[in-house]
Amino acid sequence: xxxxxxxxxxxxxxxxxxxxxxxxxxxxxxxxxxxxxxxxxxxxxxxxxxxxxxxxxxxxxxxxxxxxxxxxxxxxxxxxxxxxxxxxxxxxxxxxxxxxxxxxxxxxxxxxxxxxxxxxxxxxxxxxxxxxxxxxxxxxxxxxxxxxxxxxxxxxxxxxxxxxxxxxxxxxxxxxxxxxxxxxxxxxxxxxxxxxxxxxxxxxxxxxxxxxxxxxxxxxxxxxxxxxxxxxxxxxxxxxxxxxxxxxxxxxxxxxxxxxxxxxxxxxxx
Length: 270
Known about the structure:
Layout: H1 4-15, H2 28-34, E1 41-48, H3 49-53, H4 59-65, H5 69-76, E2 83-91, E3 96-102, H6 106-115, E4 119-123, E5 126-131, E6 134-139, E7 142-146, H7 149-159, H8 170-177, E8 184-188, E9 195-204, E10 211-220, H9 223-238, E11 243-250, E12 253-261
Antiparallel strand pairs: 1-2, 1-8, 2-3, 3-7, 4-5, 5-6, 6-7, 8-9, 9-10, 10-12, 11-12
């Protein structure tokens, strides 16, 4: 069952449907989260709120995201200004994970859990806090939640080197390493699609305040398979609101860049 905090993260994603961002120097936060997710993740999305706050053009949009700071504070003991990155992931087993990274005070979060009557247990040296269908744990500097305690325990095991993680998936790594960092990062796989993995990053186009630039990368099983798909991909983009479209095949990879007016941009959904 979805936890309330995962619901909060999803709501944040919807509310950010109008926002853009700037490049970050690395995918370090994305990599850190992938390293504690299981290897059967089919969709992942992270949003760099720290970069969003740093863009003066987006101040009003960022402020409008938080209808009530008190709600998040009362729920978790965290204020929006303390959050740097949020992320959500989905597995083929229909489970979900949520992540919050930031400059929050862990003691305040733990005090909130205690005040709300959360029980806690220890697993592999990590404290798990739970109430009803909510489960939380700190893995490094990340507050992690999952759809079940079993799933959270799996992430704890992966964090200690037991089992294989999402980051161990070579196809995901290959795609991620070919993408520039952006305020929104997405990775996905589809069982019945021709591509092995795909990814996208999104940012505000350089020199504008009303245009989104989207970078994409698809990895196929072979160079020929990529060649078979590139024209259809270009046709699909040209039939929509995208412009300044650029597709480039490099072996089994297709790299894409396009722009879209912010007014036409919606946050992708899985």
